[in-house]
Amino acid sequence: MLDLQFICDHRDEVAENCRLRGVTADIDAVVQLREDRNGLIARADELRHRQKEVSAAIPKASADERPGLIEQGRELRAEVTAADEKLRGIEERLREEQSRIPNMTHPDVPVGGEDDASEIRTWGERPQFSFQPRDHVDIAAHLDLIDFEAGARVTGSGFYFLKNDAVLLEMALVQFALTKLRSEGFTLFTTPDLARDSVLEGIGFSPRGNETQIYSVAETDLSLVATAEITLGGIQKDQVLNESELPLRYAGLSHCFRTEAGAAGRATRGIYRVHQFTKVEMFAYTTPDPALSNAVHADILRIEEEIFQALKIPYRVIDTATGDLGGPAYRKFDIEAWMPGRGEAGEYGEVTSASNCTDYQARRLNIRCRNPDRKGTQFAHTLNGTAISCARALVALLENNQQEDGSVVVPEVLRPWVGRDVLTAG
RNA sequence: GGAGAGAUGACAGAGUGGCCGAUUGUGCAGCACUGGAAAUGCUGUGUCCGGGUAACCGGACCGGGGGUUCGAAUCCCCCUCUCUCCGCCA
Question: E strands within A238-360?
Fold first, then answer.
């Protein structure tokens, strides 16, 4: 959510930003609703003030005066109630309109859609195969690593059982990421896999409705989380943070659940796009200083890259274009890993995402910070990034490390947890 | 799941219908005292909304939401959370 004052003071900029991001939002309605709201607040406050005066006069009034004053107070109370009700309606509509407006955008972000992202750099050598590389589904079948049929039978299409070495491989990825993050000074968490809808909304997800990406639990205000960004961001909901303890850097392990509504037919083969996966997520709270949150953003990206470098998986980093940022992100860097089994001769596939959401999430979650030298509080900045998203990391790992005989070389950094150098059939 | 107790400012802890945005203590900040400090004394010390260049003014907030009343931290109802005991359980 953007600041109301900011929206009204920068109407043209906000409208242009909506256009670049491909979002329809009614700025004029927001401005109008705000004016209506302010007028009503003034009126209601005035009525309340008069009512307080009347009430205060009653204990001191003579017996003759009392009935009249009580009647006057009764009438004022009715007017206050009416004004409050009207105000509540306006505020609800205002909040609704205001919530549709996406975050502002970093000036360096390229304009456009998915294909307009700018490539910042590439890393690593793509593997040269002397044979026709298989995709991860074929590799996994040969090594008996994933049971899709059982997943479909037990839960449905888009669910899967990891088996045998894949289980150890996933645990190894998690262990590796958590170990790395601890050494970087992150506080480690395992998180709830469910969260209140209010937290989901604060982070920027829509838990209910047709287009939702979220599984919600019937008859409760709970939903399965789509990422630990939700729960890690919820940790400080309604809190006032002391600036001296910022930045807070959290890492959380969770399952992630996504309905993938509207994604039917898109890369449905294998575990690239699934309804449930395991992920280690980074989350940071900083002071609302753009230089600082941008620096933390760069640092999160650095850690993401170091993880893929350690796994020796070639990748490129992209600066996501305006139309692909979603609502909360001010800027978003994605790592796309090289996946030799995708498409005709290999393609890049998104494996991580790092966003600076500035104060957009903090405003809705009411996460503020205080500096003892300054009066009042400010909304914090929040950032998030993927340390390791297991399903997609497995795709990249299996496809890049495959050998002609169908075996897969285990990256050195994972061997302590997997317990072997090469995965072979049988 | 059952029974009971509780939720008040940074913390502790008063407050059972108007004099309470809230006693007091601790903490914190400033000032005084001091060679300096401790101790002591004095003063100050929340957030949010609206108006105002500002000083300031008005309003809201005593876990959350409803209600009673001219008037609610205080009375009533619902919910949430915490603690204690019992039951159950990985």
Answer: 240-242, 248-257, 276-286, 315-319, 331-339, 347-356
* Nucleotide nearest A54, from its CA to each C1': B70
Q: In Å, how far are A133, A136, A165, A316 from A339, measured between CA atoms?
A: 10, 9, 20, 11
State the Cα–Cα distance between residues A185 and A250, nearest whole angstrom. Answer: 9
Ordered structural domains, chain A, with CATH: 4-100 (1.10.287.40), 114-423 (3.30.930.10)
Amino acid, single-letter form, for residue A101: I
Can you tell me the ipTM of this complex?
A: 0.86
Q: Which two tokens stand for residue A354?
A: 């790092």
Q: φ, ψ for residue A11 (rounded to 5)? A: -55, -45
> Which helix (H) or strand (E) element contains residue A190?
strand A187-190
Q: A273 an active-site residue? A: yes
Residues 110-149 of A with CB under 7 A from strand B: none
- Identify the helix (H) or strand (E) that includes residue A180: helix A165-183
Active-site residue flag, A370: no
* Residues 367-386 (A) near nucleic chain B, CB < 7 A: 368, 370, 375-377
pLDDT tens digits, A193-248: 998 888 999 999 988 777 788 998 887 888 899 999 999 999 988 888 888 888 99
Catalytic residue status for A258: yes
A368 included as an active-site residue: no
Q: Is strand B in 7 Å reach of the CB of A66?
A: no
Can you tell me the distance from the alpha carbon of A321 to that of A319, in angstroms, rounded to the nearest whole number? 6
Nucleotide B18 C1' to residue A88 CA (A): 29
The separation, in Å, between residue A419 CA and nucleotide B13 C1' comes to 58
A342 catalytic, yes or no?
no
Q: What's the one-letter identity of residue A238?
A: D
Burial class for A135, CB neighbours closer than 10 Å (0-12, 13-18, 19+): buried
Instruction: Please write the tens of the pLDDT for every residue from A375-396.
Output: 778 899 999 999 999 999 999 9
Tokens of A272: 């690239």
